[in-house]
Write a structure and sequence with these properties.
Helices cover 27% and strands 22% of the residues. It is of the alpha/beta class and 677 residues long. Among the domains are: 275 residues, Phosphoenolpyruvate Carboxykinase, domain 1; 141 residues, Phosphoenolpyruvate Carboxykinase, domain 3, CATH 3.90.228.20. The strands form 9 sheets. It has a 10-stranded mixed beta sheet, with helices on both faces. Strands 18-16-17-27-31-28 form a 6-stranded mixed beta sheet. The protein is globular and about 100 Å long. It starts with 6 loop residues before the first strand and ends in a 5-residue tail after the last helix. Pathway: Carbohydrate biosynthesis; gluconeogenesis.
Length: 677
């Protein structure tokens, strides 16, 4: 035992000697020696402290924490890339900011606002500009224009931020943004929790008057050029009045030969992260060579439109100008307006290149066989196109070109209501860091999301990159489709579980876009209601539906694709008396379509609709394949069949007068393919 004030430590790192009065510290405590003395070389503390940081201030220390990003993709191959490599980083940054400033230019000035990269919260990033000189710093750009309040300030540009940076911006500055237990970002879209189709306008000019579909049944509501410019000015002035705006430069269409460059200017981190997920994310090299966008969105959704402006019917307006390649959003913060607005643009631009734009899901077998899935809400499009034995090319928007199929988007936008890991494991597992959760409700303490809670809206959504799906095919492209599957949830119970369609029938049912919903009547009785949406996406198409249908038939004929009508609805009676066709049976039918065995089956023809139905499908009871066999009341079946046929005919009246080609032969073929009675 140590005595008389002698202490020793097993590690040998320190020793304390207290044998003389001079070696005592305060209050008689022994002194600890940390400096080596020659006489006590082995008995003093060892100094194992590390070197100090290379910073003189706390701000300098924080700056060391964040490493500057640099492109890692080598620039090779193209002349364009060779030109880009000749630019210095300073010149490239200046060109990029000039392009963004031009995008934000007011119509009353020839130049855009002063812009600077970075967060205004970091004061050091706001440059000082003397009245006698232009700014030469590459990270900001100051054009010259007349003095005004707006001319005296810089607009900070938060350019192509990462998800982590956007999380920080949203949580810090946007009320209603929270980190959930799964790592996803929960956000609120404000008063609007869905699209506003009645507030969507398209500029009608000399070109679009003849090209677009106008009038009865069309989703295109007209506005004039002047009104668009008034709204654009309002949106741009609002965005330029802010301390900061978010700018995303991204792509649409995974086919590199036909991709579109888009720029999204928005005021919310939520919108920027949403579009980061939903559009195709450029590589650093692609971003260096981005240049001028093909299309620009100005999302000033927090600011209302002026109701006294011509054509405005509310404080919300979503305006498309195809000549200017611009879209303006006022009075709605619902992010889906951007996604579907760009889809409308693709429905206009792609057919001009002889490329068919499609509102469909798409997957591919391991042998390279591609299937397209069309269907309205509730038909099972997402469920059936998500198959663990097949690769997912995309869940919603596609193009069919001379090269095959390609996904338009870089992400998925999934419904979340009543979501569970058991029912939709892929979507459930995709809700993690980087995912945007719209309008969901979560437990205040644990931040676990309650997907059954409809307190905010039933239209809760998750937006995530497509790479979050394990069997996604990257890049999202595939060969020409082998099967085109049209899904309908027939609550009337008279359509067969599966029918093989000829080309004319495929066009007819594609233009019809039928499903039947179950709606409540005043006395509480639930009754089926027929719903028709042209091309299975009437809200987004720009041209007349027959133009898309003719392109579909032409491509199917050229590449040998087969059309199928699959009913995922009722059998043995209408809703209330019959039964929903089991999902297991529908999956067996889809499997038989993919494998090609259904092409080899024997077929019989139904009355009224003239559909060819197989007599047997492996794993499916043969008696349900022909719906007449499942109805005990044959007279009721016939009445219901005729009623549905009449609804199809009435819906098609708006398309019947549209002439396709010089001889109108194709229109007659399509009409003949409908119900006949």
């Amino acid at each position: 035992m140590a005595t008389n004030g002698d202490f020793s430590f097993a590690g040998g790192n320190a020793s304390v000697k207290n044998n003389s009065p001079s070696e005592k510290g305060r209050n008689g405590l022994a002194k600890i020696h940390t400096q080596k003395k020659k006489a006590e070389a082995g008995e003093v503390c060892h100094d194992d402290s590390g070197p100090t940081v290379k910073a003189q201030t706390i701000d300098e220390l924080h700056s060391l924490q964040r490493k500057k990003s640099a492109p890692t993709t080598p620039i090779t191959g193209t002349p364009k890339a060779a030109f880009a490599s000749a630019l210095s980083e300073e010149e490239r940054q200046k060109q990029q900011l000039q392009s963004i400033s031009a995008s934000l230019a007011s119509l009353t000035r020839e130049t855009g606002p002063k812009v600077v990269k970075g967060d205004p919260a970091r004061k050091a990033e706001t440059p000082k500009v003397s009245s006698h000189s232009h700014v030469t710093d590459p990270f900001h750009y100051a054009p010259t224009f007349s003095t005004s309040d707006s001319a005296l300030k810089f607009t900070h540009i938060l350019y192509n931020l990462s998800p982590a940076e956007l999380y920080e911006q949203a949580i810090k500055y946007e009320k209603g943004s929270y980190l959930t237990a799964s790592g996803a970002l929960a956000t609120l879209s404000g008063a609007k929790t869905g699209r506003s189709p009645r507030d969507k306008r398209v500029v009608k000019d000399e070109t679009t008057t003849d090209e677009l579909w106008w009038g009865k049944g069309s989703p295109n509501i007209e506005m004039d050029e002047h009104t668009f410019l008034v709204n654009r000015e309002r949106a741009v002035d609002y965005l330029c009045s802010l301390d900061k705006v978010f700018v995303n430069d991204q792509f649409l269409n995974w086919d590199p030969n036909h991709r579109i460059k888009v720029r999204i200017v928005s005021a919310r981190a939520y919108h920027s992260l949403f579009m980061h997920n939903m559009c195709i994310r450029p590589t650093p090299e692609e971003l260096e060579n981005f240049g001028t966008p093909d299309f620009t969105i100005y999302n000033a959704g927090q600011f209302p439109c002026n109701r006294y402006t011509h054509y405005m019917t509310s404080s919300t307006s979503i305006d498309l100008n195809l000549a200017r390649r611009e879209m303006v959003i006022l009075g709605t913060q619902y992010a889906g307006e951007m996604k579907k607005g760009l889809f409308s643009v693709m429905h206009y631009l792609m057919p001009k290149r002889q490329i068919l734009s499609l509102h469909s899901g798409c997957n591919m077998g391991k042998g390279g066989d591609v299937a397209l899935f069309f269907g309205l809400s509730g038909t099972g499009k997402t469920t059936l196109s998500t198959d663990h034995n097949r690769y997912l090319i995309g869940d919603d928007e596609h193009c069919w070109s001379e090269n095959g199929v390609s996904n338009i988007e870089g992400g998925c936008y999934a419904k979340c209501i009543d979501l569970s890991g058991e029912k939709e494991p892929d979507i459930w597992n995709a809700i993690k860091f980087g995912t945007v959760l719209e309008n969901v409700v979560f437990e205040e303490h644990s931040r676990d999301v309650d997907y059954s809670d409809k307190s905010v809206t039933e239209n809760t959504r998750a937006a995530y990159p497509i790479e979050y799906i394990p069997n996604a095919k990257i890049p999202c492209v595939g060969p020409h489709p082998k099967n085109v599957i049209l899904l309908a949830c027939d609550a009337f119970g008279v359509l067969p579980p599966v029918s093989k369609l000829n080309l004319a029938q495929t066009m007819y049912h594609f233009i019809s876009g039928y499903t039947a919903l179950v709606a409540g009547t005043e006395d509480g009785i639930k009754e089926p209601t027929a719903t028709f949406s042209a091309c299975f996406g009437a809200a987004f198409i720009m041209l007349h539906p027959t133009k898309y249908a003719a392109m579909l038939a032409e491509k199917m004929k050229k590449h040998g694709a087969t059309g199928w009508l699959v009913n995922t609805g009722w059998s043995g009676g209408r809703y209330g008396s019959g039964n929903r066709i089991k999902l297991a049976y529908t999956r067996k039918i889809i499997d038989a379509i993919h494998s090609g065995t259904l092409l080899e089956a024997n077929y019989v023809k139904t009355e009224v609709f003239g559909l060819e139905i197989p007599t047997e499908v492996e794993g499916v009871p043969s008696e349900i394949l022909n719906p007449v066999n499942t109805w005990s009341d044959k007279a009721a079946y016939k009445d219901t069949l005729l009623k549905l046929g009449g609804l199809f005919k009435k819906n098609f009246e708006v398309f019947a007068s549209y002439k396709i080609g010089t001889d109108n032969k194709l229109t007659e073929e399509i009409l003949a393919a409908g119900p006949n009675f």
